[in-house]
Amino acid sequence: MSVEEAAFGVHSHPWPRLAPRLPVLVILFGFVAFFFMLDLVLGSVRIPFQSVLSILAGQGSDNVAWEKIVSYIRLPKAVTAVLAGAALAVSGLQMQTLFRNPLAGPSVLGISAGASLGVAMVMLASGSAANAFAIRQLGLGGSWLIVIASSLGAALVLLVVLAIAVRIRDNVVLLIVGIMVGNITVSLISIWQYFSEPEQIQDYLIWTFGSLGGVLGGQLWVLGTVVGAGILISFAASKSLNVMLLGENYARSLGMSTFSVRVTVIAATSLLAGSVTGFCGPIGFIGIAVPHLTRSILNTSDHRFLMPSSCLVGAILMLVCDIIAQMPGSQTTLPINAVTALIGSPVVIWVIMKNRNLKSSFS
Amino acid sequence: MNSAILQTKDLAIGYRIRHRGPRKRKKGLRHFSRVVAGNLSLGLNEGELVCLLGPNGSGKSTLMRTLAGVQKPIDGEVMLNGARLERMSPKEVAKKMSLVLTDRVVTGNLSVYALVALGRYPYTGWTGTLSRDDEEIVRQAIETAGIRRFVARHISDLSDGERQKVMIARALAQDTPVIMLDEPTAHLDLPNRIEVMQLLKRLAREQQKAVVMSTHELDLALQAADGIWLMNFSTAEASNASADIVTGMPEALVLDGRLEKAFHRNGFEFDRHSGSFRIHHEPTATIGLFGDGTETYWTKRALERLGYRVVSDGTVSRRVELSGANGSKCWRYFDGETSETEEYTDICAVVERLRRWRAK
Tens of pLDDT along B19-76? Predict the structure, then answer.
């Protein structure tokens, strides 16, 4: 026993526990359930909690309109919100660790733009109007097509950014490159818009506002399956992402294949950000804000814990955004993209202010 | 040599330069290599601390990278535990050899304990959950490195010295017979440098680890290392180009003058007696110095710094004599030309007097 230990007692430096803290996850899950129910209750028409519960339980309701609203509008929308929030948060978390950059996220590094390009290409090829209604007309097969196209578009941009990342190890340069690649993608879309009919441009613009309400029935299963697969892949990468925190050289010295981790993260991020963007439009800020929020709430960098927590926090934030977007009690709804930015930006600023040094606080 | 856990035979290290040849040639890719150092036959035994020394640009980092398997050798083989390094999978290598790099881990929110636990990566399952044994190894590594005090702190809150010990603890948790460290004492102050060296020495002694570290700290290396690998000896000597490395016990290298030769440059010289470098002061005057004890040694150093050639015979006209008991020395300055004698009780005063005289 050293002198210091003798002076302070051995127990002054207890061994920390690494195992995930389950109570926190349970509390977060409780919040998800609460806001999920709130999302079903609130809206242009306020439906009593009891009625919502009985409709969910399959017992129906005296009010047929309420039943229709909950089953066909609010429930799919709330489920989409949970899926989108979880997917975007997890993809943002992985990218911040992979790029070792606190500003990385699907919307910043051009992934969403890549997915948009994929969607635009499908709409151009199918020759129909470029909007969510067109996707619905394409039916189930069409929705798979959209997911594949937007995921491929997202993967394409991510591959380009990553190929450059191999050569340039400077994070700031990489970020600029990512933004530039995103800009190229956006400009390709705007060239296409320039040669399109005004109606198509209008439809595309509406798509870019983002909407959680366009995913119905079978499409919800498609989105759910793809997001579920993406999240499973991400969870499996948690151990490797933890090692990536040490930097690539250390990761390699620990016997990790950095190549396979990159491929895994690209695959997962493309699936997650690509599918959500395809169905809901490019939703910004959730991907970048939620990982920071989760880290500062939980004060850990263990991805085995951050992954599920980010999922839950992402779902909570997305549900809250959706509730605000519905403007409870009024007939109007706000575009979801505007609301996420309105909520997400202050969160990012708050995290920066709180931690002062974003670089040392990241991931 | 056969018992060496890490050994090389006729290893040539350097870079392969991929060169795109003229289009007409069938093989479009031609390989050119730039050999940084060749003919390296090295052996590292368990329980040995070896310091890799050499001037900047001599290929220390290239050798470290090649030994770690990050870079392929141009020629020759690296054998780790009797197996060819190139043939081993990254996971196998990770169980035999751990690295401490100069890369700075900047991640916040990463606690010291969690970071050290990452050393168990090659042993844990796909979820990365630590078993009771893993946890025990992590805790022992932390105790050994003496970082128990800040297990719960975040890596971004640590000083450079503390962080280096954490990285060494992480390498210990990896539980490998070989530990390689790339300039672990760089950017550290003297107490921390010594602590890190002592820690590494203890690991070699008590846990029979084979430790290689690259460093610029010649004096520390001479005191602590069991072996010295000295890079780029031949270029400094420009005569015998058979091997680009000199290896041996530090004391033997000093005694047979090879160390002196390797570091010979204008302006400074290696002092065989003290085992340290000295800046060479071009003497412009001669002075006699008589006396004994530590005070005399440091007076000699001060006089040499002023540009005197210090001798100890009576033929010189000017001289300094030290007398009195240790701790209450008296400096007597005698000028043979003017036959003046001055007495001082303080080293500053006598040196200042001589400095003024030199300035004239």
Answer: 555 544 444 444 567 788 888 888 999 999 999 988 777 788 889 989 988 888 888 8
Q: Which long-range contacts (CB under 8 A, 24 or more apart) does A164-173 make?
A: A165/A99, A171/A99, A171/A100, A171/A101
Residue of B111, B115, B128 with shortest CB distance to A239 = B128
pLDDT tens, position by position, B309-350: 888 877 788 889 888 876 778 888 888 888 888 888 888 888
Closest CB to B94 among A253, A295, A360: A253
Q: Is the ipTM above a cut-off of 0.85?
A: no
Domain around A234:
80-361
Q: Does the pLDDT at position B167 exceed 90?
A: yes
- Give A312→chain B minimum CA distance, Å: 20
How far B76 CA lies from chain A's nearest CA (Å)? Answer: 22
Which is it for strands B285-290 and B318-323: parallel, antiparallel or unpaired?
parallel
Q: How far apart are CA A204 and CA A182, in angstroms?
A: 17
From the list A238, A239, A360, the residue facing B108 with the nearest CB is A360
Disruptive mutation site among B96, B103, B109, B162 for chain A (greatest number of A CBs within 10 Å): B109
At residue A168, does pLDDT exceed 50? yes
Q: CB-based burial of residue B247 (10 Å sphere; 0-12 exposed, 13-18 middle, 19+ buried)?
A: middle
Q: Which residues of B touch A264 (CB under 8 A)?
A: none
- State whether A255 and B113 contact (CB < 8 Å): no
Determine the Cα–Cα distance for residues B80 and B98; give it in Å rounded to an integer. 12
Cα nearest neighbour of A297 on chain B = B109
Residue A55 lies in a domain: no
Report the number of distinct structural domains present in chain A.
1
Residue A2 falls within a domain, yes or no? no
Position A17 in a domain? no
Name residue B40's beta-bridge partners: B11
User: Is B274's Cβ below 8 Å from some Cβ in A?
Assistant: no
Residue B237 three-state SS: helix
The CA distance from B243 to B3, in Å, is: 22
Q: Kindly report the nearest CA distance between residue A24 and chain B, in angstroms.
A: 17
Q: Tell me if A13 is assigned to some domain.
A: no
Residue with the bigger pLDDT between B218 and A83: it is: A83
CB contact under 8 A, B105 and A242: no
Of B89, B106, B146, the CB nearest to A360: B106
pLDDT, tens digit, 9 for 90 and up, residues A86-104 = 999 999 999 888 877 777 8
Q: Which chain A residues are closer than 8 Å to B157 by Cβ? A: none
Measured CA distances, B39 to B51, B71, B195 (Å): 19, 17, 34
Contact A133, A297 (CB under 8 A): no
- Report the residue from B97, B105, B129 with minimal CB separation from A246: B105
Going by CATH, does the domain composed of B46-58+89-271 fall within 3.40.50.300?
A: yes
Prediction pTM value:
0.80
**Which chain B residues are closer than 8 Å to A15 by Cβ?**
113, 139, 151
Task: Tell whether B131 lies on the interface with A, counting CB pairs under 8 A.
Answer: no
Number of neighbours of residue A260 by Cβ within 10 angstroms: 11
Inter-chain touch B105–A257, beta carbons under 8 Å:
no
Q: In CATH terms, is domain B285-359 a member of 3.40.50.800?
A: yes
* CATH number of the domain encompassing residue A244: 1.10.3470.10
